[in-house]
TrEMBL record:
InterPro entries, sorted: Glyco_hydro/deAcase_b/a-brl, Glyco_hydro_38_N, Glyco_hydro_38_N_sf, Glycosyl_Hydrlase_38
The protein's name in its UniProt record: Glycoside hydrolase family 38 N-terminal domain-containing protein
Example GO molecular function: alpha-mannosidase activity
A GO CC annotation given for this chain: Golgi membrane
Ranges of residues in domain Glycoside hydrolase family 38 N-terminal: 159-223
Amino acid sequence: MNEHPLSLTSLCAVYFCNESELIQLSNQPKFHPFQGQLSVLQDKIDHLERLLAENNEIITNIRDSIIKITDSVKDGRRAVDSGNFSQGPAEMLPSPPLVIPIDPEDCQFSTRPYSKSADGVQMLDVYDLLAFDNPDGGVWKQGFEITYDEHEWDKEPLQVFVVPHSHNDPGWLKTFDDYYRDQTQHILNNMVVKLHEDVRRKIIWSEISYFSKWWDNIDDQKRGRCEKRDQFM
């Protein structure tokens, strides 16, 4: 008869221990496996982006080295062909200054009356005057029909001039420096190589902020390649 109180006490002790463990488990923060997987995936993506930027920088350095070696070989051949076997250091002639012709009328445009901005124009009032109906203009969607004679060039072939045009928007999707490091500088470096391969090629570059940053970072040899050619627009 004395065994029953002891058994009841043991059962109560076991119950309270299990209850305590359940309370501790319920208070622990829940673990979301998908959140951990996304974090690992994001780290891998960031690592790949850093590797890509480093590889682009290495390729740029290799390309610049090849350009320098090619120019040095060509300069050596010119010296041999001209019979210039003089000893001692050669004196570098100063490069002629870069002169850009400017029409005098361009400097006077801002002083003319019709170039002044109109005062008192409220854009909110202009919005009320615009229709915003976006009429269908055909192929180009500009509100007017574009037509042409499809047989106009049957007898004489049409000459097509393809001119590359830059489109590097500062601050678009990336910061100014990130865009320049990842994309713009490689475009400009490759441009120097391609223009040197064919003197008939030309390029239009409009983003002066990027061009100025690139110009400040390149060496004198690459600058000389750009200054000697009229392929920039």
